[in-house]
């Protein structure tokens, strides 16, 4: 089965055929850097991280661009509120973004342009739009003439009459605009705002023009995939599409991909509802791979409901994966075994089938869970015969290969397991030293053959939610 991608522009899954065979050019809208990232950002960037990983794994030469918006009304307002230069604010939150994404295993994009490094390019784009008859100047502002683009609102599927009615209800002094839905390409600067020279006087870019300019600079006038959250379909991506067409005369994106929203306990995440979680909030309670796993349990286009129980279940799955991989590592360190090529290719084919269906990570995770369960069953078989060894080697290789695409099971095994356990201990209000002491008591009772006392300690630990495991390497415990 060939890769099929849901295209927002066509409203159905299309066969994926990049503009240039073997190469994929991909642009994803980045963050506006005035605050720390929330789990909605995590949803988007984990989703597109997996997409670019899968495309590379599938053999494509991928150029991945993800920008930073580092000049904007919100940025200027926040910098003024804090009494610091805009650049100090944006540098800080770009670093915060990288810290959060690194923790989640989101790979850096190949190119991460900042708006403020591309002002001359943006000015040239605006000039072309005006010269081509799709923009006009009013004072020091430049606006896009939406009536000049017949396909305006085709991406979002909205109706212009409805949009005009909504625009007319807003209390804004926009009488200079030729049409209520016209939008700014260039804004004249106000006193105290960052400003750059332009043919229309000092000012700064409108929001949408930055992405049209930077995507074309690094990917060309036409490229393959443009991604972002569903909230960006209108107005951002709709306006990008109009601008890019006006500048080049070409339909600049072949496949529009949009991820779904994050809901919290059934309601849309919002600061006003006090159900708003930053990535840092979540990572104070859970290993970052638990959040990543959780975000992949739902297809990227569907809304995902963020709950405590959901991420706890994801944490258990992550632990199980690492425990399984750790057990396989120990076993394979004692035998000479190679994966069985036919079986490994069969697992790959199943993985491809899931991911070729519009990057269905939920289905892929189901297959990964089956492989982990099968690997544990193989490890439980007695002996170290060639059949068992090959089975363990095959399933272990398959888990690690799929994990590389999904961004799972790639970290230090022992450290990840220990961190997951430390978070569970903390959330349940337990004390590791007390647990260690009880485990020692149990071992001492067993050594003295006082099995009744050993069982009593084990039962006490179970009531605390702690499972004790006797292994060839010694007694281990874990919170369940």
Characterization of this structure:
It is built from 16 helices and 15 strands. It is an alpha/beta fold. It folds into 3 domains: 249 residues, Rossmann fold (3-Layer(aba) Sandwich); 106 residues, Up-down Bundle (Four Helix Bundle (Hemerythrin (Met), subunit A)), CATH 1.20.120; 52 residues, no CATH class. The strands form 5 sheets. A 4-stranded parallel sheet has the order 4-3-9-10, with helices on both faces. The radius of gyration is 27 Å and the shape is elongated. About 1% of the residues have low confidence.
* Helical content class: 40-55%
The CATH superfamily of the largest domain is known as HUPs
CATH class category name of the largest domain: Alpha Beta
Rg on CA atoms, Å: 27 Å
Structural class label: alpha/beta
What is the helix tally? 16
User: So what's the oligomer here?
Assistant: single chain
Uncertain runs: 169-173
Salient structural properties:
4-stranded antiparallel beta sheet, Rossmann fold, Four Helix Bundle (Hemerythrin (Met), subunit A), 4-stranded parallel beta sheet, 15% strand, 480 residues, alpha/beta
């Amino acid at each position: 089965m060939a890769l099929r991608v849901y295209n927002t522009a066509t409203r159905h899954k299309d066969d994926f055929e990049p503009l240039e065979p073997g190469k994929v050019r991909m642009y994803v809208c980045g963050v506006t850097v005035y605050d720390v990232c929330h789990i909605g950002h995590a949803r988007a960037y984990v989703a597109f991280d997996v997409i670019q990983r899968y495309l590379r794994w599938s053999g494509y030469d991928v150029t991945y661009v993800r920008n930073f918006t580092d000049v904007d009304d919100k940025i200027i307002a926040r910098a003024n509120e804090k009494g610091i230069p805009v650049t100090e604010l944006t540098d800080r939150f770009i670093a915060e973004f990288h810290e959060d994404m690194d923790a989640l295993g989101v790979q850096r994009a190949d190119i991460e342009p900042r708006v403020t490094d591309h002002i001359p390019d943006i000015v040239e784009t605006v000039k072309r739009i005006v010269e081509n008859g799709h923009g006009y100047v009013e004072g020091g502002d430049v606006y896009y003439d939406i009536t000049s683009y017949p396909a305006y609102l085709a991406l979002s599927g909205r109706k212009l009459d409805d949009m005009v009615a909504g625009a007319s209800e807003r209390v804004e002094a926009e009488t200079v605009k030729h049409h209520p839905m016209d939008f700014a390409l260039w804004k004249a600067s106000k006193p105290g705002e960052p400003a750059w020279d332009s043919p229309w006087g000092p000012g700064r870019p409108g929001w949408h023009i930055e992405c049209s300019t930077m995507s074309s600079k690094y990917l060309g006038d036409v490229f393959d995939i443009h991604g972002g959250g569903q909230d960006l379909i209108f107005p951002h991506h709709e306006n990008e599409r109009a601008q890019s067409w006006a500048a080049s005369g070409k339909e600049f994106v072949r496949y529009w991909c949009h991820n779904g929203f994050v809901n919290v306990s059934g309601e849309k995440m919002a600061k006003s509802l006090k159900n708003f979680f930053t990535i840092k909030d979540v990572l104070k309670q859970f290993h970052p791979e638990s959040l990543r796993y959780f975000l992949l349990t739902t297809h990227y286009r569907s809304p995902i409901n963020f709950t405590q129980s959901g991420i706890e279940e994801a944490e258990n799955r992550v632990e199980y994966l690492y425990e399984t991989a750790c057990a396989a590592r120990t076993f394979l360190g004692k035998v000479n075994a190679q994966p069985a090529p036919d079986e490994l290719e069969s697992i790959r084919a199943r993985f491809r089938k899931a991911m070729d269906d519009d990057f269905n990570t939920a289905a892929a995770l189901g297959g990964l869970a089956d492989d982990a369960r099968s690997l544990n069953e193989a490890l439980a078989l007695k002996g170290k015969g060639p059949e068992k060894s090959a089975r363990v080697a095959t399933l272990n290789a398959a888990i690690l290969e799929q994990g590389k695409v999904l961004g799972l099971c790639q970290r230090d095994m022992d450290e990840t397991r220990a961190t997951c356990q430390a978070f569970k201990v903390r959330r349940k209000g337990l004390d590791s030293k007390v647990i260690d002491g009880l485990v020692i008591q149990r071992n001492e009772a067993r050594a003295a053959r006082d099995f009744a006392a050993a069982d009593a300690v084990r039962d006490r630990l179970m009531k605390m939610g702690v499972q004790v495991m006797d292994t060839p390497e010694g007694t281990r415990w874990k919170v369940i």
